Backbone:
DNA sequence: GTGATACGCAACCAAAGGTTGCGAAAGGTG
DNA sequence: CACCTTTCGCAACCTTTGGTTGCGTATCAC
């Protein structure tokens, strides 16, 4: 049973810088490579590359506006990504539960044996 | 406002191969580099490197058993990682909600203006 | 027009994921 | 014991990815 996870979406949000970029875009509604890089510990060019990755993953979209290019989060796609995050969490949680109750069952079995 | 996310834990579970390894270890309770690599599209050596990363992140622990070294998931630490996953999901979800209701408010305001 | 601002493109660098190759320790079996 | 197999650990090497600097170009503001 695979996790059913879309690796492209995951790797897009797997990078810490990209996660912070999404945070910033969500908090401020929009942003450009320059404005984002001002609040991040990386250069504008690095931010641009990340924006390209996020764009390919469909998580952001951009519109040229004069001499600058504005980016904003694609809400539907981010919602999808969030859903996948939650689903992995839930899956692992369930497995952890199973492991725990299994251990419990074994412990009880051994107690009755004695 | 930062996400409060532990980047070490994230990058540990950010890699698709490592996620599948955790899945396998959870499903089968334990495993070695060799048994894991048999079910993954990578070599034993690659798996070993990933196990080292997971070990440093505290997500797995290992015990030498004869000529092999068995690994198992550290449940507490994985539970912590899952909690962080969920928390990011929840945060983004909340922000998406806010964006949506904000847009709604603006739309309503413009309607009344007309 | 001139200067500042925002961008795109290219070269280059370091770290991470992955591979092959090899030597050594632990187990089975004659 | 001797031999063969299994499992591991270490080292060299390759490719991708996140990051940098440098430079040319388009746009805005005066």
Residues:
């Amino acid at each position: 049973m695979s996790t059913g996870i879309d690796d492209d979406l995951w790797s897009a949000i797997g990078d810490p810088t990209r996660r912070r970029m999404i945070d910033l875009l969500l908090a401020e509604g929009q942003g450009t490579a320059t404005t984002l890089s001002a609040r991040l510990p990386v250069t504008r060019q690095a931010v641009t590359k990340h924006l390209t990755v996020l764009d390919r993953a469909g998580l952001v979209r951009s519109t040229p506006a004069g001499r600058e290019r504005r980016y904003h989060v694609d809400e539907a796609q981010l919602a999808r990504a969030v859903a996948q995050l939650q689903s992995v969490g839930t899956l692992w949680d369930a497995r952890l539960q199973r492991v725990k109750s299994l251990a419990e069952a074994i412990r009880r079995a051994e107690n009755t044996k004695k």
Remarks:
- Residues 32-34, 44-45, 48, 66-69 of chain B lie near DNA strand D (CB under 10 Å from a C1').
- Chain B touches chain A through 32 residues (CB under 8 Å).
- The radius of gyration of chain B is 21 Å.
